[in-house]
Amino acid sequence: ARLVVLVSGAGSNLLALLEACEEPSYGAQVVAVLADRACAGFDHAARAGVPAQVVAPGDFPDRPHWDQALVRAVTAWEPDLVVCAGFMRLLGPGFLERLPGRVVNTHPSLLPDFPGAHAVRDTLAAGADRSGATLFWVDEGVDTGEHIAQVEVEVLPGDTEATLTQRIKAAETPQLVAQVGRLAREMVRGEGLQGAGAGADP
Ligand code: GRF
């Protein structure tokens, strides 16, 4: 299966996917990485010899034009699955219409708790005693799509945003790698995707 990965940041999840894809039995290849800004994730792709491109909102007159450019850049790679791995922008309706049931995102909380860009900070501020990561099918809402998998971690006394982020990522990354591989292999076997939007009404 062909993966396009969208990144905005450190790209540790992307790195793990790139490593997993080196094993043929994993059943997927990262065919391109797209970013909304220059970032470490973009550099990982370039180093791995994977085509990488920045499609920056600031280079377009408005959001719909950026969305269109991103759709064009992504669909040009004919992905089976688009993986948002620390991609810090909302995808517009145009994007999701062109790739129905093919876009997943990983989020550092036990959704529906703590959606949005500051999930870890919000988790700590709320005094929650557990957190985790959720992999879900992207829809037009903010972290509202149907869940694919969830993994839980403890919040420990004295946790900072950095320590909790690290503990979450240690559970999140293996979950992402395992689930993306499963989805990819199901596609290759022609079983179709299990989940929201997959095979959705036209
Ligand atoms: C991950 O924790 C993901 O849940 C969140 O952003 C982080 C990305 O990390 N959306 P990285 O860029 O893969 O290191």
Automatic annotation (TrEMBL):
It is an enzyme of class 2 (transferase). Keywords: Purine biosynthesis, Transferase. Pathway: Purine metabolism; IMP biosynthesis via de novo pathway; N(2)-formyl-N(1)-(5-phospho-D-ribosyl)glycinamide from N(1)-(5-phospho-D-ribosyl)glycinamide (10-formyl THF route): step 1/1. N(1)-(5-phospho-beta-D-ribosyl)glycinamide binds at residues 11-13. Its EC number is 2.1.2.2. Belongs to the GART family. Catalyzes the transfer of a formyl group from 10-formyltetrahydrofolate to 5-phospho-ribosyl-glycinamide (GAR), producing 5-phospho-ribosyl-N-formylglycinamide (FGAR) and tetrahydrofolate. This is Phosphoribosylglycinamide formyltransferase. The gene is purN. The chain holds residues 31 to 232 of 238 of the full protein.
